[in-house]
Design brief:
The complex is a heterodimer of chains A (about 250) and B (about 220).
Chain A: E1 3-9, E2 18-24, H1 33-46, E3 69-70, E4 73-74, E5 96-100, E6 109-111, E7 114-115, H2 118-125, H3 147-157, H4 164-168, H5 175-186, H6 195-208, H7 219-223, H8 231-246
Parallel strand pairs in A: 1-5
Antiparallel strand pairs in A: 1-2, 3-4, 3-5, 6-7
Chain B: H1 2-8, H2 11-36, H3 43-55, H4 65-95, H5 110-113, H6 115-134, H7 147-155, H8 158-185, H9 194-220
The chains are: A alpha+beta (about 250), B mainly alpha (about 220).
Chain lengths: ~250, ~220
């Protein structure tokens, strides 16, 4: 199959970018989206042009490194699918495909389709952890966890921090990400000692990174390759309200 | 006061302010709609009800005091609601300076995407509404104290009725997303309650729109004279 690509090309973080047109020819429908970009890049390299820079790592849909706004949708048209798990059979021969980086002032473009998602790391560093004395691993069954709590915590922990929620949000808000990271620990016994401080610090860090706020529209959850529920945003709101009111 | 200020400093806290002031305003809008329905029980009833709003609380409160307390609470709520919304909107604009060349929406409802301009329309309508029915400035046949006469003669002007109907549809859309959003912001939503809370939002929006639109429609249809 043949497709026409419009790709965001930007030399570096400081230079302005623009959409550039490329033709991808003789692509098998079983090719993955990133392999299609690889083959376009091979041609660019053969012509001595700069290949298109994009993020990828595991290509198994679990690491959260790949990104891309594909035809206006984070990770492309398939639900609960990362870009690396998207295949060309999701498109038709002759399609025009727009490919852009995540757009948010908190995710500055470094080059072409690669953005700096360090803002997420700083939100995690501000409180998305538990403090434990290291040593040998404790007996796993010594801390009982209710089944429903562990199930819900695992749903939140499915977040791979890819940033699709921010990219899809009309406000460029990081609420779904922050909510998943706050909730996964708030639900478990190990997360209790730092529960209040965690939510306050993570929300403060989220705001200071320059993300927008949540207007409860729901684009984030729909775009999320791990289908993280907006219910976790309600949980974050609840945690934040309780922590603020009870803080000494 | 300190926790309230700490709360307001965050985007999450500003939303709480919007939710709580929104709750006050929704309560008012629903009560206002129910009061409006008195028009269908006859002019005397409606005028008595309007007088009751001024004498309520007597003799502990002087004449009109309860009404003015309510007005001040509403005015403060409106101001806080708008200030928080404006600050948050500016934060969002700064959050994405470079727009997408191509962007599709999947989950967004029309109501959720028109909260801001819808809010501006509602504000303009409220100003007009006060000039029309409260002060009488924008009413061509205003008799102070005769609410029934003012309502009927006001809505007999067809374009005034059209303005009211359009404004109520805008208010309905605002409530449809706003009431549900309020539950989400206050952290009340979860798997068990989402359906019920969505239902409350839909019912509130429908009740306010239908209840209020019934007045101009009844006047234009010649049912109220």
């Amino acid at each position: 199959m043949n497709v026409t690509l419009h790709v965001w090309r930007q030399k570096n973080a400081t230079s302005p970018g623009k959409m550039v047109k490329y033709e991808a020819k003789n692509i098998s429908p079983d090719t993955s989206f990133l392999e299609m970009l690889d083959s376009v890049n091979q041609e660019l390299i053969a012509r001595d042009e700069d290949p298109i820079a994009f993020d990828h790592d595991c290509r198994e849909g679990i690491c959260g490194t790949c990104s891309l706004m594909i035809n206006g949708l984070a990770h492309g048209p398939e639900r609960a699918t990362t870009t690396c798990q998207l295949h060309m059979r999701s498109f038709k021969d002759g399609d025009t495909i727009y490919i852009e980086p995540w757009r948010a002032s908190a995710f500055p473009v470094l080059k072409d389709l690669v953005v700096d998602r360090g803002a997420f790391d700083r939100i995690i560093a501000s409180g998305g952890y538990i403090s434990v004395s290291t040593g040998s691993a404790p007996e796993a069954n010594s801390v009982p966890v209710p089944k429903d709590a562990s199930d819900l915590a695992m749903d939140a922990a499915a977040c791979i921090a890819c940033g699709a929620c921010v990219a899809a949000c009309p406000n460029a808000s990081a609420m779904l990400f922050t909510a998943a990271k706050v909730s996964q620990l708030a639900l478990l016994p190990q997360g209790q000692p730092e529960r209040q401080r965690r939510v306050l610090d993570m929300v403060r860090q989220m705001d200071s990174e320059g993300f927008g706020h949540c207007t409860n529209i729901g684009e984030c959850s729909t775009a999320c390759p791990k289908e993280i529920s907006m219910d976790f945003i309600a949980m974050l709101n609840r945690e934040h309200l309780k922590a603020t009111l009870s803080k000494k | 006061m300190a926790p309230a200020l700490a709360l307001y400093r965050t985007s999450v806290g500003k939303k709480v302010v919007m939710a709580l002031t929104g709750l006050i305003l929704v309560g008012f809008v629903v009560a206002h709609m129910l009061g409006n329905l008195k028009v269908f029980t006859g002019g005397e009833h409606l005028n008595e009800y309007a007088e009751f709003l001024r004498t309520v609380g007597a003799p502990a409160l002087p004449y009109g005091m309860a009404l003015w307390i309510a007005r001040i609470v509403l005015l403060v709520s409106v101001v806080l609601h708008i200030v928080a919304a404006t600050q948050l909107t500016l934060q969002d604009r700064a959050g994405r300076p470079q727009r997408y060349a191509y962007h599709k929406k999947q989950a967004a409802t029309y109501a959720s995407l028109t909260m801001r301009w819808g809010g501006v329309i509602i504000l303009l309508f409220v100003i007009y509404h006060i000039l029309h029915f409260t002060t009488g400035t924008a009413h061509q046949n205003y008799i102070h104290g005769d609410v029934y006469h003012n309502v009927v003669s006001g809505f007999q002007v067809w374009y005034v009725s059209v303005i009211y109907i359009i404004a109520m549809v805008a208010l309905g859309a605002h409530l449809y997303h706003g009431v549900w959003s309020m539950f989400q912001t206050l952290g009340l939503n979860n798997q068990t309650w989402n359906g019920v809370l969505r239902g409350i939002a839909v019912l509130t929006a429908l009740a306010v729109v239908i209840g209020n639109i019934a007045l101009p429609v009844a006047v234009l249809a010649g049912f109220l004279t």
